[in-house]
Amino acid sequence: MDKRICLLSISVALLSAADFTPPSTRADPVTETLHGVKITDPYRWLENQDAPETRAWLAEQDKYARRYLDSTAGRDAIRKALESLLKIDSIGAPILRNSRYFFSRRLASEDRRSLLMRRGYKDNDEILVDPGAVTSDATSSVNYWGITPDGGVVAYGIRRGGEDETEIRLMDVAKRKVLPDGLPRGRYFGFHIKPDKTGFYYSRFVVGQGSRVYYHAMGSQPSEDREIFGKGYGPTQNVGFGISDNERWLMLVVSEGVPAAKSELYVQDLKTNGPIQTIVKADADFNINIAGDSLLLNTNWNAPNRKIFRVDLKNPVRDQWQEIVPESAQAITGTSAAGGRVFVSYLENVTTRIKQFDIDGKCLGDLKLPGIGTAYVPSGQWEDDQAFFTYTSYVEPAATWRLMVSTGKQDLWFRPKVPIHTENMETKQVWYSSKDGTKVPMFLVHQKGIPLDGNRPVLLTGYGGFNLPTLPGFNAIAAWWTEQGGVFAEANLRGGGEFGESWHKAGMFEKKQNVFDDFIAAGEWLIQNKYTNPRKLGILGGSNGGLLMGAMMTQRPDLFGAIICGAPLLDMLRYQKLSVGAWWVSEYGSADDAKQFEYLYKYSPYHNVRKTAYPAIMFSTGDADTRVDPSHARKMAALVQASNTADTPVILRYDVKGGHSGIGSVNKTIEEQVDWMSFLCDRLGVKIR
């Protein structure tokens, strides 16, 4: 071999290794003793998001991340493909008021969604709110918060970047004029305008205080708003409300934690301005719908798979409740009341079935769905015959259908035209054994007829928490990945809601390790069954799924070739002290409790980083995540960078406008997904087609 070529090869290899060397981060250890155990946090200072040193550190991290990401091959091809999948016409499900249809829309040529109205079902679209006209911030988005029964006044929110906080404005629909009344930027849980337009109700959460329900009289200042309910409740107790379609009943709901470990329900008769009455206080979760003068309670109270009670709001005492839908072998995942019927969705092996009942619980048969996949219960008003529902699957983009409840007639409201050959895609469900022998389902999506040679790039994802099921649904990343010859895999881990509360409880508190074991077993199954190998196995997860990614990198760094860890919880000894983390003590527990400290410390990713070889890792978050504090990702990135003994990149993708709720700009979404896919393709050796 030519000596010059050999030296050149060595130089390129050394340069490549140098490119992966991250910026150094100053360690400033803070040591505390928790329940007799000394805990050292070397990067506590990175919790101070606005400190000049933190901002300077973020700037260096961004340079490092961009130097790597922008040098990866195939980015232009990835961007072009994702643009074709995401820059398409998109129309949301409508809200019907007084024969007017209110909905959001984004055309293929537009970056953000606008708010529109049709005066009739097939009438022309009229733009009410253009996001570009109400804010100069290109990352801001708008959405509906309330509409009067006559369709004359709408409330809309302006959300900046990915934050959860919203500014609420009111508009006179006929005049297209913004009204003087509104609410400043805040975290709101509900909003309702009175039919006579003399005022509105809302619930607002304030960090450190908790949430309260208020009434605002039109023409007054928000500082003068009357507190209706919530005094005495703390930051971990979320207070929400609902008002019946007939405007008579004000429902007040107090939930302890997320998901609710305890609940309190109250009602007030607005017609008589009567006292606030207690309906129930229980160690259970309640989801409510109001049907005329009846309250429908979807609850796990003494029913792990949930059941539904009907409560007469004129006489809501417990011994008068009527159980209209009993618990069954399948878990109830949703309930709605529309067109004089009660719709109940169930999961059967992680696919949706929707049953219809009358108000007394008589079964009226199944709602016909377009296929075997995921559907959401029809949304509408109790006395209106029209309702709308959405259906999707891994190979079918989400489409919205109008249902005439009385006749069962369905017609298509909107289906996106996605340029992808779904006829070449195959979906199947497999079951595998977890560490303790529990059978866990997983969906696989790939092109038909792929060879099982153990060398296929696989993207595995999962969630496993908060009683939330991971359901089949079309997404651009999975579609693009399969077109590259890859396999998209989604595991239905314990902790989720796929099989009711017992499945959820098997993955929370001291049993959280079951979730991690389920995911590890999914990866091992994919390898054992010749789909892939560790070098070709990439994983992705966000939020609670980001915690899952953190556990994977600390428990099984040898099993994966690349990890994308989005908006994660990672310091499980301090999460409850950061942002709104105290809400989730009902799911994880708290290190403030000596017994719970033991298992949290055992698996907390931040406290289990060691000097070892880590796979390529991308942490992804941003300043505007006001739900899961972005300091989790900042601290973990610094610690893993300092601990990694392998020649692999560990980067922090940090978008100052990015947040937990996603950014309303399709261009920003594409930017993020291009970074994700180019990272995975580069590390897993995917040949971009």
Question: How does this structure look, described?
Answer:
This protein has about 700 residues and is of the alpha+beta class. Among the domains are: about 300 residues, Alpha/Beta hydrolase fold, catalytic domain (Rossmann fold), CATH 3.40.50.1820; about 80 residues. It has 12 helices and 39 strands. Strands 32-33-35-34-36-37-38-39 form an 8-stranded mixed β-sheet, with helices on both faces. Helix 3 packs across helix 12. The longest helix is centred in the C-terminal third of the chain and has 19 residues. The two termini are about 35 Å apart. About 45% of the residues are buried.
What's the CATH class of the domain at 25-83 and 433-684, please?
Alpha Beta
Number of helices: 12
Question: In percent terms, what proportion of residues is strand?
Answer: 35-45%
Shape: globular
Notable traits:
689 residues; alpha+beta; Rossmann fold; 8-stranded mixed beta sheet; 7-stranded antiparallel beta sheet; 12 helices; 35% strand; globular; disordered N terminus
Short description:
The protein has 689 residues and is α+β, with helices and mostly antiparallel strands. Strand 24 and strand 25 (351-357) form a beta hairpin. Helix 3 (75-86) packs across helix 12.
Question: What's the structural blueprint in terms of helices and strands?
Answer:
Blueprint: H1 3-19, E1 30-34, E2 37-41, H2 52-69, H3 75-86, E3 90-91, E4 95-97, E5 100-106, E6 114-118, E7 126-129, H4 131-134, E8 141-147, E9 153-159, E10 166-172, E11 177-193, E12 199-206, E13 210-217, E14 226-229, E15 237-243, E16 249-256, E17 262-269, E18 277-282, E19 286-291, E20 294-299, E21 307-312, E22 322-325, E23 331-338, E24 341-348, E25 351-357, E26 363-366, E27 374-375, E28 379-380, E29 386-393, E30 396-404, E31 409-414, E32 425-433, E33 439-447, E34 458-461, H5 476-483, E35 487-491, H6 501-505, H7 512-528, E36 537-542, H8 544-555, E37 562-566, H9 585-588, H10 594-603, E38 616-621, H11 631-643, E39 650-654, H12 666-684
Parallel strand pairs: 34-35, 34-36, 36-37, 37-38, 38-39
Antiparallel strand pairs: 1-2, 3-5, 4-5, 5-6, 6-7, 8-9, 9-10, 10-11, 11-12, 12-13, 13-14, 15-16, 16-17, 17-18, 19-20, 20-21, 21-22, 23-24, 24-25, 25-26, 27-29, 28-29, 29-30, 30-31, 32-33, 33-35
